[in-house]
Amino acid sequence: MIQSMADVKAEATSSGSDAPLAPQPSASSSSSSRSLQDIWRSVEQIQIGGKSLKDWGWLANLYFHKDALYLVLNLPTHPPVATEEIVDRLRQHLAQHAGITNIRCQIRRAPPARRTPPAQTRSPQPAQTTGATPRQTRVTAPIQHWLAIASGKGGVGKTTVAVALAWYFRHHFQWEVGILDADLFGPSIPTLLQLNVQRVQAELHEGKPRLIPPQWEGIPLMSLGFFIKEDQPVLWRGPVASGTVRQLVQDVAWQPLEALFIDLPPGTSDIPMTAAQSLPLTGVIIVSTPHPLAWADVRRAVAMFRHPALRIPILGIVENMAYFTPADQPEKRYYLFGKPRTKELAQQLEVPFLGSLPWIAPPAEEKPLSFTDMITHPAFLTPLAQIARHLKEKIALLRTQKNTTTKPSQTNTGASPNNPTT
Fold it and tell me: Which fold has domain 31-109?
């Protein structure tokens, strides 16, 4: 069983591949892990409102960076004492007992309890609809909705759809979201967002080292692409790859999230199956192009998630690259694959059709659009907004149906158990 990124490196090396390097602490983290653990234990004993900080469970992370001690606190919206008083107590305690005066506190507000039940009390979604018992994946903070973005075929723009939806939910619905790049053999999110030079650091979380997810547009994200060179192949066999997917969830210091968008690898291999079985997926969004060759793989992907061993709710299909629109002529539409008919495919499969996205590019002689420029272009943003609204409605409906279902086996509510949002 793989226990750390260092173990991943060892496993990959034995398989003949250069493995990703484990994250290195920041240069200013000169204190030993033993001293950090002593500080952690000391801070946990601070009494606030009649209980210790350990009993409250507010201390999420603690680490040194650039000669400062950073404390990350997960506080409720209305703590029993004022936030300022909590911070002052921490500063006084550390100055008196550890001689540390350069202290930075990062306050994270957990989503309201009615919207984000504790992760450890939630049953994984697959377990509600199948007799299989998937392996529970531990996370460092509550994650309410686990949204997988999948495709039967590569090259259909699955990553584009995943990141665009996460961006829209963050900036237009004000959801706290994250992105997990689970496409291990083609981790393209760092390249897509021009974050190839980003270095991943580590910090202590409850006394254990955790990866600090880099941020893009206020969204934490994690990808194997942060640990390997851009042209480095990943020559891993199934067990190592599947274990790494779990690590990218468990060994990352995620903050409380209302949604984690998971970019799955294409196809119906062991990695998307492992993700579906080991992660408490809320549902899956399937991406296709209008080309008939992509439709056959969409059918296979739908069949996989409907398989009795998985039974993951399919929230809908997104048609990507439905047409080409020149960036300087947003009113123009050129149907490179013919008139879109993916909506008809969705109807045949009894799956919701969420909408279509265009392919937008500037004239050949001009500089290519950045990803942010593309998704904020009116010709792209308008259909993206429609898709995001439809997806949000499907999530809300699924949650309502889940709350009104008295037993996991009672799924016959007039909708297919595979597609309760149809």
Answer: GMP Synthetase; Chain A, domain 3 (3.30.300)
Nearest to 296 by CA among 110, 114, 152: 152
Tens of pLDDT along the chain (422 residues) come to: 333 444 433 333 334 333 333 333 343 333 334 467 788 888 988 998 888 888 888 887 777 776 788 888 888 877 888 888 899 999 999 998 888 888 888 887 654 443 333 333 333 333 333 333 344 566 777 899 999 999 877 889 999 999 999 999 999 999 999 999 988 777 889 889 988 766 788 877 777 788 889 899 999 999 888 887 777 777 666 667 667 777 888 889 898 999 999 998 887 777 677 777 778 899 999 999 998 888 888 999 999 999 888 889 999 999 999 999 999 999 999 998 888 789 999 999 999 999 999 999 888 778 888 899 999 999 999 999 999 999 999 999 988 887 776 444 443 333 343 444 44
Question: Is the CB of residue 306 less than 8 Å from the CB of residue 353?
Answer: no
Q: 268, 306 in Cβ contact below 8 A?
A: no
Instruction: Tell me how crowded residue 173 is: count the other CB atoms within 10 A of its CB.
Output: 13
**Contact yes or no for 275/182 (Cβ under 8 A):** yes
How far apart are alpha carbons 382 and 396 in whole angstroms?
22
Cα dist from 417 to 128, 268, 282, 287, 317, whole Å:
10, 20, 13, 21, 17
Residue 228 backbone zone (phi > 0: left; psi -120 to 50: alpha; other: beta): beta
Query: Which of 305, 164, 209, 282 lies closest to 4 in space, CA to CA?
Result: 209
Domain boundaries, the chain: 31-109, 119-404
CA distances from 410 to 46, 123, 414, 420 (A): 47, 16, 11, 12
Burial class from Cβ neighbours inside 10 Å (0-12, 13-18, 19+) for residue 192 reads buried
pTM of the model: 0.66
Tell me what percent of the chain is helix, strand and coil, each rounded to the nearest 5: 35, 20, 45
CB-based contact 287:320 (threshold 8 Å):
yes
- 249 alpha-carbon distance from chain centroid: 8
119-404 belongs to which homologous superfamily? P-loop containing nucleotide triphosphate hydrolases (3.40.50.300)
